[in-house]
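Exercise 7.
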Amino acid sequence: MTMDIRLARIDSRLLHGQVATVWTKSVTPNRILVVSDTVAKDNLRKTLITQAAPPGVKANVITLDKMIQINKDPRFDVFKAIILTETPADMLKLAEGGVDFSQVGIDVGSIAFSDGMTMLNDSIAVDNDMAAQLRKLHDDFNLDVYAQKVPADKKQDMMELLSKKGF
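Solution. The predicted structure, written as C-alpha cells, is:
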C-alpha cells in the first residue's frame, strides 16, 4: 500500500479558503501536506498554513525531499492526503521522485500572474518553463492535468488551455 492521495493541486496560494473548506468536504482528507522547500524554511508562513487547516484535518509543511521519503514509508499509508505545491516545478519534482498521482491527476487551481507570464484563464498564468513542466507531467507521467477551482466547476484540460495560448 501507499499513501492515499485524494487531491494533488498546484496553487500559488497553497492552503486558503477554497481548499480548507470546499475541497476538504469533497475529498475528505485527514491530512493536508503543503510541499514547498521555500515555505518549509519560513516559520511565519508555516505557522499560518498549519493554523488554516479545517477542523479534523491536520496540515503539515514539508520539503520536497521529505514528501518523496514519506511517500515510500508504509507508516504514512494511513494518510488520506491533499498534496499542495506552489509551482508546476515542485509537482514535477514529486512525480520524478516517484510520487504516484495516476489516481487523481494534477489540479491546477491558481498560479499568480507576474511579468513575462501569459494568462490561460482567470486564475492561471504560466511562463514557458511552467508550460513545459505541465506538459511533462501530462506526457511523461501520463497524468490528467486539469484546471478546476472548486469541485463544482467543470474540469478544463490544461493541454487545451496551453495550446490555445501557443504553448
